[in-house]
TrEMBL record:
Pfam families: Rer1 (PF03248)
GO cellular component terms attached to this protein's record: endoplasmic reticulum; Golgi membrane
One GO process term, biological-process aspect: protein retention in ER lumen
Subcellular location(s) per record: Membrane
Stated family: Belongs to the RER1 family.
Membrane topology: Multi-pass membrane protein
Keywords noted in UniProt: Membrane, Transmembrane, Transmembrane helix
Transmembrane segments: 63-81, 116-134, 140-157
Protein name: Protein RER1
Biological source species: Trapa natans (Water chestnut)
Function, in words: Involved in the retrieval of endoplasmic reticulum membrane proteins from the early Golgi compartment.
Main location: membrane
Amino acid sequence: MEGAAGEGSSAMAPIVKWKNDFSRLFQYYLDRSTPHMVERWLGTLATVMIYVLRVFFVQGFYIVSYGLGIYILNLLIGFLSPKVDPELEALDGASLPTKGSDEFKPFIRRLPEFKFWYAITKAFCIAFLMTFLSVFDVPVFWPILLVYWIVLFILTMKRQILHMIKYKYVPIDLGKQKYTGKKGGSSNVTRKD
């Protein structure tokens, strides 16, 4: 009995080794792509365009596209939401700072940008592969799906924007703020020797 199990595991050893090597190499390149945000998003944009062209020329797979749209909407909500919800924090007694003397709490996303990018890219790749399987080409009247998704998007974004306004947070990072000095007359002072 042990011989049969040993033979099966020795036959699987090269597959497991190949899988581990591939996983390690994939993670290496994924880690190296982290600081290159513009290039990553341009690659994702190219993937999106390939997917859109595929769906356009095949004239099908609308249910796959609808599911992809719902998934991306879910990711977008996580990307725009704070890690700690102020509504739940207010129930605990802690709240966002309202005065200059209060503790500063930076905006931390529930879904970081890198994970957001990776999930969207992976979703479009999987959806693209699904367009080659006819089982996913369910005949539907796509304009109804599109209108329903647009209504869902508007209602969800309205709720999210009202939440942002209510708790005064901005999820968009505009980069590091730079100190430019005082705007008073200190720069106009001339020195007499």
